[in-house]
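sorry for the late reply, my laptop died twice this morning and i had to redo everyting from scratch. anyway the thing you sent over, i finally got around to it. pasting the sequence first so we're on the same page, its 516 residues, then the predicted structure underneath. double check i copied it right bc i was rushing
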Amino acid sequence: MTTTRRQFLRRATQGLGFLAAAAALPRWVGNAQAATLNGYAGSRVAVCVFLLGGNDSNNLIVPVETNAYAAYLDARPTVGLKTDQLDLISPSNLPSTPFGMPRTLSKLRAHFQSGRAAFVCNVGPMVLPLTKADYLAGGPAVTENLFSHSDQQDAWASALANPGSSTVTSDIKVTGWGGRAADKLHVLNSSTPPDYPEVTSFGGKPRFCAGVERKPMVVAPDGTLAFRTVNTPPSDFDQLQQSALADVMPVQDGNVLETAYAGVFTTAQGFSSARAAAREAAWAQLPEVTRLTIDHYFEPSLPPEDTAKWTLHTQLYQVVRDLVAGAMPVDKGGLGLKRQVFSVGFGSFDTHHDEDVDQPKLFEQLDFALDAFQKSMTLLETQTAVFGSNAPQATLFTMSDFNRTLLENGDSGTDHAWGGHAIVLGNRVAGGAFYGTFPSLDLTGSLDGSTDERGRWIPTLSVEQYGWTIASWLGLNTAAERDYVFPNLTGYLADAVARNFPAQARKAKVGFMLAD
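ok and here's the structure:
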C-alpha cells in the first residue's frame, strides 16, 4: 500500500503532543505587551487542577454547628459525612463557627491549619450577580446551559458564562482565561528559545490553556513530549524515520497550508527539544538530596493495587519538573521563564451513585498529590544557591464543572448543581481562612441562596473574581488587562454596585493572595 505524505507525517508525529493536533495552525509569537513583575522578579507559576465531572464540595467543608450539621445530615443521610469521618478546622475569619473536613483530606487539612491553604466558598460561572428572584425571572443575566457538564466546564475555563449572548469577539469565545493571561504575560518571558509557550497542559480542560495569541504546549500526563519510537533505546529504524521526516518536511509544493504546517512543526520540534534539554539540565543542578526528596514525596505509600489508576500525582510531578526547568536561569541550562501556567486534571467526580464509596477514593488521591506538590514547592523555594533570586513560587487552585445538590438522590449519589467551594494552595496564599459566603444548608427555610429545594447554590462569587485574583498575582494589573482576560467582570462589578449587592460582589479580587 502506498503511504501518502500526510499519512507519514501523522504516524511520525504521534506522541509529539500539541504538534500532532496543529490543524488550527497555532501561533506562538504574540503581539500583546502588558503585565509587570509586581513585587517579585523571580519565577511565578499558577497551576490549575480541574476536578472533572463536578466535585461535590458540600463534602469538602462541612458545618458542624449543631443546627447546620443536622440540616446537612437531613439532606444527605447516606452520602453525608458522619462525625467520625471529619476532623475539625478553625477558619481564622470565622472563629466562632466550627467546620469539619473529611479525614481523606487530612494532609490538605494540615496545610489549611498552617495557613498554606484556603477555601473560596460558593464560587461559579456568573453573568451578573443574582438573587433567587433574578434566577427565577430568567433571561440573559442567568448563566447559560446550567447543569451541563461540557457547557459549565467551558464556562469555568473561558470565564464566559454567556457565550451565546455575549458580544465579545469570536476569538475570545473560543479561548480560555489561562491562555489569555499568557497573551499578556508573554512580555515578561525572555526565554531561550524565544517565544517558548507560557502555558503547559498535562490534562484538565483544553480551552483554559488557549490564548488568542499564545498557544499551549500539550503534553501527555506522564510528561512525554517526543516522537514515538518503535524501540527503546531508539533503533536504526527510528533514526531512519527521523531522517526521512527531515527530508520530507521541506517538500511543500508551494502549498500555503503545507508551508504553514511545516513552520509550526519546526517550531514545535524546537520547543520539544529545548524542553527535554532544559528539564534534564535544570534537574541536574539541584542537589541530589533535593531531587531524591521530591521523588519520595510523589511515591504513594499505599499498595500499588490501590494506586494503580492514580494519575494526578504523576501530572503534578511533571509540573514540578517543568517549572524547575522554566525557573532555572539560562546560564545553568534552564529556560529562564518568569511566568508560567500549568493545567492538570482528573476524575470523574460525576457521582450520581455510590458517592459514599467513590468520592473518598478521589479525595484520597487529591490529598496525596496536593500535599506532594506543596512540599516540593516549599523545598524548592529554599534552593537559592541554585536559582539565585529566581526561586519558583507556585499557587495551585482548583476548578470543577459545578458543585452537586445538597439533597442526595435515591442512588446514594448527588446530581448536578452550581456554586461550590474551591481550594487554593501555596506559600503565597493567605490561608487558614474562608473567602466568600458559605451557603445556608437549611432546605426548609426561604431557600434564597438556592435555585430550588434540592440545594443548588446560586454563586456569590464569580469565576472572574476568582481568576483575576490569581492573574493579578502573576503580574496583570491594569483595567485593560482585566477586561481582556475577563471581559464580563467590569459589567458584573458595575451591576453589583448599582444594585447594592454585598461588598464581596463589588470587589474585583477576592483577597486570598498575600500582598507583595
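The radius of gyration is 23 Å.
thats about all i looked at so far, will dig more tmrw
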